[in-house]
Input
Amino acid sequence: MSSSPASLNLDGSSLVALQARAGRDPKAAVREAAKQFEALFMNEVLKSMRATTLSTGLLDDAGTKMGTQMLDQQFATQMSGLPGGLSDLIARQLERNMGLAPGPIPATGSANDTPAPLSAKPVPTAIPQAGAAGFVQQHSAEAQAAAAETGIPAAFMVAQAAHETGWGRKEILNADGTPSYNLFGIKAGPGWKGPVAEVTTTEYVAGQPHKVSAKFRAYGSYAESFADYARLMKNSPRYQGVVAQAQDASGFAQGLQRAGYATDPAYADKLTRVINTTLRLQRSLA
Output
């Protein structure tokens, strides 16, 4: 789609061009789409104004009506895309919703809604300003390595890490406030010989949330977290059915819930939504 203000692009070919541009430059495509939306809105405003204007009818024929419509389209285009206008507001909101700009990150309803210990020092998350898109980019390499081990799509694992940590904003912290690098909320059972992070977390009993203290595995890096998750999915008989259904977002999420990965009764639905968000982000970043 041309960025020239000479005309209002309403035809199908312009929409196809905008879709192609979105694949190459998502932010520019968002700005152009916002500008087009504002132009459409302004065109409707002008049409409404024309409809309420008294006319003699002497010169109202098909030709003059078409000319008026074309003139209104030009006016609408000229008035759109100005700094501080409606298109700016639309573009900023779209960029935030798509994770293309700093701002509120899509809500996940983190299963590990774990507050930091009161004694912990504030520690910036790994992606303090980059948003959801930054989280996806940051963990793509580790997820690809885990996907090669398990057969679970990398996007599904990135999405689960995003859900468990609130896109990196609610990571489990050690007692001294440093990151535990535990992206998947894996607890430290009797067989775990490594370091642990003990925090307060939310568990559901008979469908009701309760705050409990629990020990979680701690790692030296995010790569270790993904590798440990991959071993759990690959080697535990409990999750064999999950791996078998891992080609479908809903099937993967439902399989995790049936296997008892989390106690939240809405875990599968929440995770499915985050997976779909992650897939959209990956397409926009491709």
In short: The first helix runs from residue 12 to 24.
